[in-house]
């Protein structure tokens, strides 16, 4: 199967897609109007009725074929991801594997949507629960993980017996279209799962929130847009899954293994040039190890190779567009003006217009914008702290609560900090926490709902109480 750009695009398409490394156009995608998508939703709803009647085992067999095809086409999918998002090829291959893992997981998990029998409350009556598909779903996905953010929404929806319509990010439609093509090749009915690129995301978002056939919306993106979607879905009382902004702390205590902490910081902070929702946004380091940690981190950061994602050996790619680069530059410049000190980087790169140097800043304080805004760039602002209580207070002093990381060896401290951090996900002594087997999601203004694990399947199921009398 051909998954190259020219086979997925349309020379006359309305949506132009650009390579973040060069700014050059790589292709055009066909787009859909509000009326087009409304008709697609109606067709999906009809297809979903039939799909829901199939056995979970039948659905699992088709999802397993989709998983196998996704793995088989890893290299083509990775090239698409790199072309659209700019991330290095090694990271793109890793994303395809990560995305495929959700298809594999939910292919099996869909067969375990168990109900229960409940001890009765009266003679001659029986009480039980069953789980049924929530109905036709809509999803809105971001550009930073254009494969994984789709599979971890679409796979559980299909496994649960739902139809789903997906609006991909305007910057990365081709990865989504490739996944759609592979799913249809695997046997997913065409009407059941559709990808609908658009040049008017606000209009399509409103349609998803108000269409009478949509019963569930899953969104990954900014908190501001998430709040708008919440308001728009209120009239129809839609089921919602929202994975929104983050401000992840990465805390290094004085009893930490510093070499391990540096490795974790590199993985968490600089993956995808810092453009991940769970990447370390603030690095908090205790007084006793501050200077040693910063020096070790500087050595690793300065060894990163900046360049286009398709180039051999690149470990730090471009930002998604000039607006993303300008935001990073603004936050760094503001921090420097407020007293922060550059350890390395702190400037745009001569690799190209879309690039920013891997950066470390010290002397950062919590009142600086760079400590409260989501940076989405390769910048590590380091905040010094003295006590455990102070670290937890600084870490929690944010309206966001998606992911948090810390390094410590004292067992008591590990449990105190793990329980004290107000985040939906906490990693102790590790810089990577995402996996298909665990629930991914945040609290506070970082959203609601979970993706992955058995909890991710429940997001697409309704729990029905059944009473049988006259026994």
The gist of it:
With 471 residues, this protein is α/β, with parallel strands linked by helices. It is built from 16 helices and 20 strands. Residues 13-465 form the Aldehyde dehydrogenase domain.
Provide mean pLDDT, rounded.
97
Strand order of the largest sheet: 12-13-14-11-10-16-17
Structural class: alpha/beta
CATH architecture of the largest domain: 3-Layer(aba) Sandwich
The tally of strands reads 20
As a percent range, the share of helical residues equals: 40-55%
Name the CATH superfamily classification of the largest domain. Answer: Aldehyde Dehydrogenase, Chain A, domain 1
Per the CATH scheme, the topology name of the largest domain is Aldehyde Dehydrogenase, Chain A, domain 1
Percent of sequence in beta strands: 15-25%
Tally of contiguous helical segments: 16
Task: Summarize the main sheet.
Answer: 7 strands, mixed
Low-confidence stretches: none
Q: Identify the CATH class of the largest domain.
A: Alpha Beta
Distance between the termini: 57 Å
Instruction: Give the count of structural domains.
Output: 2
Shape estimate: globular
What Rg is obtained from the alpha carbons, in whole angstroms? 23 Å
Protein name: Aldehyde dehydrogenase family protein
Pfam family, one: Aldedh
Organism: Aurantiacibacter rhizosphaerae
GO molecular function: succinate-semialdehyde dehydrogenase (NAD+) activity
What does the model show?
Keywords: Oxidation, Oxidoreductase. The chain has 471 residues and is of the alpha/beta class. It is built from 16 helices and 20 strands. It folds into 2 domains: 5-244 and 446-468, Aldehyde Dehydrogenase, Chain A, domain 1; 248-435, 3-Layer(aba) Sandwich (Aldehyde Dehydrogenase, Chain A, domain 2). The chain has helices at 5-8, 34-53, 56-72, 74-85, 89-109, 148-160, 173-186, 201-210, 223-233, 258-270, 290-301, 322-337, 369-372, 388-396, 411-420, 453-458, and strands spanning 15-18, 25-29, 116-118, 126-133, 136-140, 164-167, 193-195, 214-220, 239-243, 248-252, 280-286, 341-344, 359-362, 379-385, 400-401, 403-407, 425-428, 443-444, 447-448, 461-468. The protein has a 7-stranded mixed sheet with strand order 12-13-14-11-10-16-17, with helices on both faces. A 6-stranded mixed sheet has the order 7-6-5-8-9-19, sandwiched between helices. A 3-stranded antiparallel sheet has the order 3-4-20, with no helix packed on it. Strand 5 (136-140), helix 6 and strand 6 form a beta-alpha-beta unit. Helix 3 (56-72) runs antiparallel to helix 5. It is globular and about 75 Å long.
